[in-house]
Specification:
The structure is a single chain. The chain is an alpha/beta fold. It has a single domain (20-258), classed as Aldolase class I (TIM Barrel), CATH 3.20.20. It contains twelve helices and eight strands. Strands 1-2-3-4-5-6-7-8 form an eight-stranded parallel barrel, surrounded by seven helices. The longest helix is centred in the last third of the chain and has 19 residues, at 182-200. Bound molecules: pyridoxine-5'-phosphate (PXP). Pyridoxine-5'-phosphate binds at residues 25, 27, 61, 88, 108, 110, 118-119, 148, 168, 208-211, 229-233.
Length: 263
């Protein structure tokens, strides 16, 4: 008998014992800077501190309107981030050109609307449009692609068919529900079903949006979850306790949540 015996392989076992990685979304540091047009606080410096405190990666969203992260930021982040650099962007020609120049470790494609305060919903994953063209080009050029999607098994399946290697499940619906409410339980069950679907489709799995120290635990326990993108809740807490403390505590909350993972 050769190859893999029945049962989990080394990758499956590692995924089970390792807590999901924390990628800090540093847009919110840039928002504070842009609000006054100052040079500080610098998201690039914040990224260094987050990595020194244990974050496994950095996420930055270069929006079309440049309301927070600037082109200079992503260029410097590409040079300075030591772990994983995840460039979040809309599926547009301009962003595709920038991504191909920068070559981040992977790109997360998100829907973008000018009037929104932050990303509101997951992508419309339908074949034959700009999204598919951007996914295909990035993949052909060797840049990994994650699609930010609503937590629905059918959308997970469409993302896989489109060629995404990773899906990031939108956790905002779960976070918006009052803690421990029936709605929170319903949204968590939705995330669990979508996470199982991602595992079945052989996709790498991430999650994020709206998470913080108190809400992250049950999400960290999702089956197959490998990474979490967290920004606002972390930066807000850092204002009170400092960035290093906030990252250390959040990673501990993720590890505690993940220890409740099944099997
Ligand atoms: N993931 C995606 C795709 C996002 O757009 C955002 C917000 O920029 C996040 C994660 C992080 O969300 P939050 O800042 O609420 O933690």
């Amino acid at each position: 008998m050769s190859g893999r015996l029945n049962g989990p392989g080394a990758g499956d076992i590692l995924r089970r014992v390792m807590p999901p990685r924390l990628y800090v979304n540093i847009d919110h540091v840039a928002t504070l800077r842009q609000q006054r047009g100052t040079r500080y606080p610098d998201p690039v410096a914040a990224a260094v501190l987050c990595e020194q405190a244990g974050a496994e990666g950095i996420t930055a969203h270069l929006r079309e309107d440049r309301r927070h992260i600037q082109d200079r930021d992503v260029r410097l982040l590409r040079q300075t981030v030591r772990g994983v650099f995840n460039l979040e962007m809309a599926a547009t020609e301009e962003m595709l050109r920038i991504a191909l120049e920068l070559r981040p470790d992977f790109c997360t494609l998100v829907p973008e609307k000018r009037a929104e305060r932050t990303t509101e919903g997951g992508l419309e994953v339908a074949s034959g449009g700009t999204l598919e063209r951007v996914v295909t080009t990035l993949r052909q050029e060797g840049v990994g692609v994650s699609l930010f999607i609503d937590p629905e098994p059918a959308v997970v399946e469409r993302a896989q068919k489109m060629g995404a290697g990773t899906v990031e499940l939108h956790t905002g619906y779960y976070c918006d529900a009052p803690a421990r409410s029936p709605e929170a339980a319903r949204q968590l069950a939705r995330l669990q079903a979508a996470a199982r679907a991602a595992g079945e489709q052989g996709l790498r799995l991430g999650a994020g949006h709206g998470l913080d120290q108190s809400s992250v635990g049950p999400v960290a326990a999702l089956p197959h979850l490998e990474e979490l993108n967290i920004g606002h809740g972390l930066v807000a807490r850092a204002v009170m306790v400092g960035l290093e403390r906030a990252v250390i505590d959040l990673r501990a909350a993720i590890a505690a949540g993940a220890s409740a993972r099944e099997g």
